[in-house]
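All the exercises in this workshop are built on plain-text protein records. A record pairs a protein's sequence with a compact description of its fold. The structure tokens are whole numbers drawn from a learned vocabulary of backbone shapes. Once this layout is familiar, the rest of the handout is easier to follow. An example says more than a description, so a record of this kind follows.
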Amino acid sequence: MESGKRVAESEAPMKDWRELLYERWDKDWMPRLVAHIAKNPEVFEEVFDAFVNLDGRIAHRSGFILGSVFRQQPNLLLPRIGILLSKMKEPPSERYRWHVIWYLSHCKFPSEHDGLAATYAFEELGKSYAKPAVKNAAMRLLTFICRRNPELIPEYKLYLEEVIENERPTLANQAKKVLQDLKKFEV
């Protein structure tokens, strides 16, 4: 009976994505929403536009759901990296920067974006008030960029040493692992 209920729910028509974003997050409908957004270019563009141009709850939730869409289909992110990075200087919403850093830290993107991506990742990593999750994503992004641009490793090491000295143990341990990993790529 339970599996029949799930099949019926999975075939039910999808509500408007805005309504779903305002509802409480539900692990059962989340994959359906992600798939719906990824399959429908018009809906994807609406969600992306809401993230890039709005502020508040809808922008944050749009950004969150886009992370899952981009993980499922990185090809949707790649042509939009320039747009996302161009708004980093004056972000449209409070959490915009962390979402973008998280997106970039979870995909392989063209090296033409390395400079700006590294600049913003260094800024977030250097903020004393940045959340550990943001710093972790910034470290993951910078590690990826430093592998392609070993000349950035000395500066990155200074940031990592600061993290080791001043952050909570889990983040400090991650920074120590990154330092070890960087030895392979130093020039």
Observations:
- Residues 88 and 97 are 6 Å apart (CA to CA).
